[in-house]
Design goal:
By secondary structure, this protein is of the alpha+beta class. It is built from three helices and nine strands. β8 and β9 form a beta hairpin. The longest helix has 33 residues.
């Protein structure tokens, strides 16, 4: 009986320690974002792209892919909100993702004069609903970009580095 109680206590302490370490790593990675990412323009270069893609013949392939654009520019700025839409169609009592994306997100990033992603922090952005894209940048300039491309039937993850210009 005593050894069983001891095993349960040891297992519980081990589990709590793992949860604590996971939380510490999460907090560290969250804090490492905010140090140097500011509003402005950045030049980015993709180092790796991997994912899953459905080919034209219906077969699915996975692995490393050559990115469509190895080099691109991003512009992080304060989000512009369509005042006429936000003041009328979406009231302040309507809290849903579309409302947040259009009317309440604080920052936005535009990628190569293309898609605009939004977020409440200067280093983490998501695309408009149904949220098919995410872009996260870290204080050392490295980034991760997650994309679901409906046109090509693919899911891709890219990483690389951005430099402020």
């Amino acid at each position: 009986m005593f050894s069983r109680s001891r095993t349960i206590i040891h297992t519980t302490i081990t589990l709590l320690a793992r949860i604590g370490l996971t939380g510490a790593f999460y907090i560290f990675s969250f804090c490492s974002h905010a140090d140097e990412i500011t509003i402005g323009k950045y030049f980015c270069f993709v180092s790796h792209t991997a994912g899953i893609q459905e080919r034209a013949d219906g077969q699915v392939s996975s692995g490393n892919f050559k990115p469509q654009n190895e080099k691109f520019f991003i512009d992080i700025r304060v989000a512009l909100h369509p005042k006429d839409l936000c003041d009328t169609q979406f009231s302040s009592t309507s809290h849903n993702q579309t409302n947040w994306f259009l009317c309440y997100a604080i920052y936005e990033v535009q990628i190569d004069n293309g898609p605009i992603l939004r977020g409440d922090l200067t280093f983490s952005f998501i695309g408009s609903p149904p949220f098919t894209e995410e872009f996260d940048m870290y204080s050392d300039g490295t980034f991760h970009r997650y994309q679901t491309l409906m046109t090509s039937g693919g899911l891709f993850v890219s990483d690389g580095k951005c430099t402020r210009i």
